[in-house]
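Project channel, design review

CF: Before we commit to the Streptomyces griseoviridis constructs, I'd like one complete example in the thread so the newer folks can see what an input/output pair looks like. Taking 1-phosphofructokinase.
RD: sounds good, go ahead.
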Amino acid sequence: MILTVTPNPSLDRTYEVPALDRGEVVRATGERVDPGGKGVNVSRAVTAAGRRTVAVLPLGGAPGALVAALLDAQGIEVAAVPVAGATRSNIALAEADGVLTKINAPGPELSAAEREALLETVRSRSRDADWIACCGSLPRGLAPSWYAELVARAHAAGVRIALDTSGPALLRALPERPDVVKPNAAELAEAVGRPLATVGDAARAAGELRERGARAVLASLGADGQLLVSEAGTWFGAAPVAAVRSNVGAGDASLAGFLAAGGTGPEALASAVAHGAAAVGLPGSVMPAPADLDPAAVTVTAEVPVDRPLKEPVS
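CF: and here is what came back for 1-phosphofructokinase:
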């Protein structure tokens, strides 16, 4: 079972538009409403893969009730922590050329009692978990050290933990030795404080996160592929994508594929790449099912192309 923790979930509305023109009336060609938040997306992808998951998340107000109802309709078990503030609503505008514009609301501020209730819910529901996946930004009321405390508690209980966050929350958690961290290229560059221009730059940056405490780093490099850097070695994986429809949740689908395949080694990386490549071809934040995957198109190699320029370098 994979337990996911989403401290700042959302109700996500995605509109597909021909083009985004400021100051003009833009008529959408498609619309979706989905339960959102990085950990929520991981649970949705794990469920689509036929694995059991439990989603722990603070929920409040009418948007929170709708998030719970949408997850229930998808067969996902929800461990809700009631909060006084309303769950945030986010908007994504997906243009026909693949450009995505996101408007993310800040979300409610959690009280001290709500913070402790969230930690206690994770503790009580993680007893039979193979992995805990902690994902996304922290809401107001949670200090950057909150994820570090959660990693420490998980390890004390003997549970492996994956962390997908950024900024101070990521850096504060590294000394607690999360079993895997999953930054994208921008988050990786931010963590090491320098630009990334090549695959080799990204591999070296991932190695630095390991030196700071992460046991493994699964780095999403967008159209360039993914890297896995661990004690056992470094691997690079990629797969062709015919057309990008929406990259919302693609990184979350990758993490779900990685954990569902065991969370270690090149086989898990191949699963992550297959899930990520499938996700970008789906509308909104739809998570890929097994029928959407093309494992044969995935290549994984220990010969990392260190000199290959990134298609989307990070300054």
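RD: helpful, thanks. DSSP finds nine helices and 16 strands in the chain.
CF: The domain at 2-314 is CATH 3.40.1190.20 (UDP-N-acetylmuramoyl-L-alanine:D-glutamate ligase).
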